[in-house]
Fold these 2 entries.
Entry 1:
Amino acid sequence: MDQLRNKKPIPWQRACHECDLLLTGGLAPPGQKLVCPRCRCTLHRNGNHSVYYTIALSLTGLLLFIPSASLPLLRFSLFSFGADNTLLNGVYSLYKAGFIWLASLVLFCSVLAPLGKFLLLLFICCGSAWKFLDRAVAFTVRWYQHIKEWGMLDVYMLGILVALIKLRDLGKMDVEPGLYCFGAMMLVANLSSLSFDQNAIWQRMALRRALREAAL
Amino acid sequence: MSALQKALKKGMTSCLSCHQLVILPANGGHCRCPRCGASVHGRIDGSLMLTWALTITGALLLLPANILPIMSAIYLGAGEPSTIISGVMQLYNSGMWGIALIVFVASIAVPVMKLLGLILLLVQIQLRLHFVPTQAMKIYRVVSGIGRWSLLDLFMISILAALVDMGFIAQVAAGPGSTAFASVVVITMLAARSFDPRLIWDAHDGDLYATAVEPETAHRSAAENG
Ligand SMILES: [Zn+2]
Ligand SMILES: [Zn+2]
């Protein structure tokens, strides 16, 4: 930033990533958001205590993942037959029927990407406290941006609700405890991606670097 | 207009991954973001070509996705494979019009609207038609936001396949159309990602093929214009 300031009269802080407009304001004040004046896209949302909220939420999400993935979500019974739906056995029955590409897409979007998001967020928020993890954290933030939109728990939830209504007339549908855990996990997943603010991480790392330099 | 400055004209750009303001190398090439290490280009490399290619592929795959059966449901020995459209019609005929509407929006309206929106954006930029950039940005945001909901039908098939698995009494299985439909969803999501919205503003400002200009020249041309 310093060399930038010497070279040019206006201290540009940020360029809008959707319309390339140069802005002098870099970050939003706490509790508010910064909106691009030209294209109205949200540039930065400054939530309070973003790092700690994200750690708490992603830990909760990881804990909720265990029952959501192991307990049955729905139970369908017809005459004396019955079958459960868990997060994984739907994928397995697609895989068994030979739809490997479809099975891996469903597996990725409903299990791996949400789990990965929780793990990456936890690593980013906790890891930004140590110097030797700087490169790994920067790399992880990049990966988080890539898999962010592939976590589709909310779409899966809607799929469950549609299946629930669709099969209600055919046989007996029961909601199993896993579904409540899954619903909670979906909520926590959305909250954690909402509360995560990568600028807070970069600021935290920059502050730690500045403190270290001041101490030396 | 002097207050509105484009970053690329000043030889800078925003890192798409961490939104850091990065100074591009003077020769107009790309570099690595000093903060997060992502590769930074002035504009996404070959954005228009890549988006066209993915959009056309997606549109072509939409045909087998709609013609081939997406799933087959057998109930008490009766039943037949159903395509996306016949599945929606079945739901509508059995009185579940709410569900029919949701499935229709997710599996037919969203992919078609997405492809049409992307084609509209690409044509507007390449033919330099007169358009309002804020409206184009609205289309871009809708296109990049709604794509994921198309996976609804596929998730539902995976749930039903696990729930209704009772041999000859009742059985739900995926059909070949589902593979094509899964590809449509993934490809249109990638197409929306490869589209660079900053090109909308470039076309609006009339410098579509703008490359990184060195600060001095940028200052001079700004002075000439002003
Ligand atoms: Zn903007
Ligand atoms: Zn970056």
Entry 2:
Amino acid sequence: MSAPLLDIQGLNIAMRLARGGRLPIVNDLSLTLQAGDTVGIVGESGSGKSLLSLAVMGLLPPAAVVSGRILFEGRDLLSLDDDGMSEIRGRRIGMIFQEPMTALNPAMTVGDQIAEGLVRHEKLSWNAARDRAVELLDRVRIPDPKARASAYPHQMSGGQRQRVGIAIAVAMRPALMIADEPTTALDVTVQAEVLEILDDLCQRESMALMLISHDLGVIARMCARTLVLYAGRRMEEGATRAVLTGPLNPYTKGLLRAVPRRRADDGPLETIPGSVPGFARLPAGCVFSDRCLDVVAACQAGEPAWTSPLPGRGVRCIRAGEEVSA
Amino acid sequence: MTALLLRRSASLFLTLLAVSGLIFLVMQVLPGDPAAIMLGTSASADTLAALRQELGLDQPMLVRYLQWIGGLASGDLGTSITYGVPVAGLIGERLAVTLPLAFIAILLSVAIALPLGVLSAAKRNGPVDYIAGFVSQLFIAVPGFWVGLLLALVFAVKLGVMPSGGFPGWQAGFGPALQALVLPAIALALQQAGVLTRVTRSAVAEVLGEDFVRTARAKGLPKRVTLWRHAVRNALVPVVTILGLQFTFLIAGAVLIENVFNLPGLGRLAYQALTQRDLVVMQDVVMFFAGLVILVNFLVDMSYLILDPRLREASR
Ligand SMILES: Nc1ncnc2c1ncn2[C@@H]1O[C@H](COP(=O)(O)OP(=O)(O)OP(=O)(O)O)[C@@H](O)[C@H]1O
Ligand SMILES: [Mg+2]
């Protein structure tokens, strides 16, 4: 096997608190992507998904303290300074953000916002870059791209803006695309189209995709592999089909039960009882133990280790073995 | 856009009209009969009445108001009571001092405040931010005329490198004329620069927290480019707004500073007209200042349309 495209090893992210001290958020997270891999990252709000993606981009907030290793194309991103990171951002790693309404500069035409990265990384003239921006708008299926290139973001719909966001991110054909809830803010009808555009571009450019979402349906559609996060920890990982059809971790099962079904006769929607406890008040032992339906006394004894009870699968749960043999 | 321009211009005109009425009314209630002041206390009732007629003071108020604004519209601002020359020429002459003075002061305050405010915002809580914060508080706290006196004392009296006051006129050459305006312009600019630095800092700091700045960084733009092209560009509306508001204070400051430095500008003219009860000059100068302030605010309004594309449609 060739060297992985992205190799995250033992990543920890803590937040420096205003009143002093540090609050650990992301804990001992490891994740490997080969070129062209598609990985979905799922977890409830506050589980650290965005922090993980920002850590890869080197755009964590100043209060964040990060340790571990993020190897990308063989270089340790955490040891690069901002200039070094700027060379990689946009050019080798593209990112799409959640909020199309606020993620674009209101005082700059969308064409220029796409062209900007090309001017910076490919040393194109602004005119040449603007022509490329029109092509890119066409590729994300904006009708009449030549005219729309000189539009401002407020003159576009949410779905169109998110396509502009995609055009910005794919402009330099990065090897890795990170999409942080790219469709959460969009109407359901628009979501499908945006996902299709993203999927299409990723395949055509053979980009690896790290897709963050609450929505297991989106992940099932887009990603070959899935990583389930809870309170900054890996809970479960494996091929998407395997994880969704045979979850090993009670947390993943809870997430699956909470997915709305299309059929109307399914009865009331189930939710996981309780909510993600604050990072300052995590239970002893397994961080999910206070909400887990399958909890036993041993769960509180210590944080379960990351184990691999089946080939290609990883899970953090002391009872996962029972699940496999059952 | 053209419709908007027309609408704003109409409202500009109406504002000017309303202000002219207000200024006229205030002048009417000011104590002191200009004719009596011109003639002194020993004048007889007959000569007084004759002069009042000559000045048009015996006419009804409305007639006098209409005559005044009719004159303004046609460029005839009347004749100064004390100087006996047309006020239009008087204002034009004084403008050659005040306008450059104001212009240099604004330029100076922007040249100080913009980089200082932007750098403080970019390096919040760093040494530059603390120093800029201290300096701008200092600028804000110290009155301009006092700075003027201090500057004159140091650079003119002690060091003798700058003129302490007076104005040689532009006919004396660009250099000497400019030199006479430098210290007063600094005195005028510092307080404004202090306020503008604070405003710039907070405006840029706010924009730096916006999502689109992160998008720009995610493209791989270096911090410096993100700062100026994305953050500062979007922070300009509040900065220009404050700059427009400051123009009023700049005019008020010019009256003081021109007197401190003995500059023959409009502010000094206004002050002299006030002490000499030259109602004609006073009325015209105040109207001129008011017109200037209204015009500047109109331009500020218009600049929003350039600075924020969202307003172009919203205001149609
Ligand atoms: N700038 C910050 N300062 C302090 N704490 C932060 C900051 N950003 C995130 N956190 C904390 O880190 C945790 C994880 O945040 P993150 O944004 O990564 O969650 P997420 O999984 O992306 O959630 P969501 O689905 O809501 O986007 C949250 O509990 C949040 O409180
Ligand atoms: Mg998030």
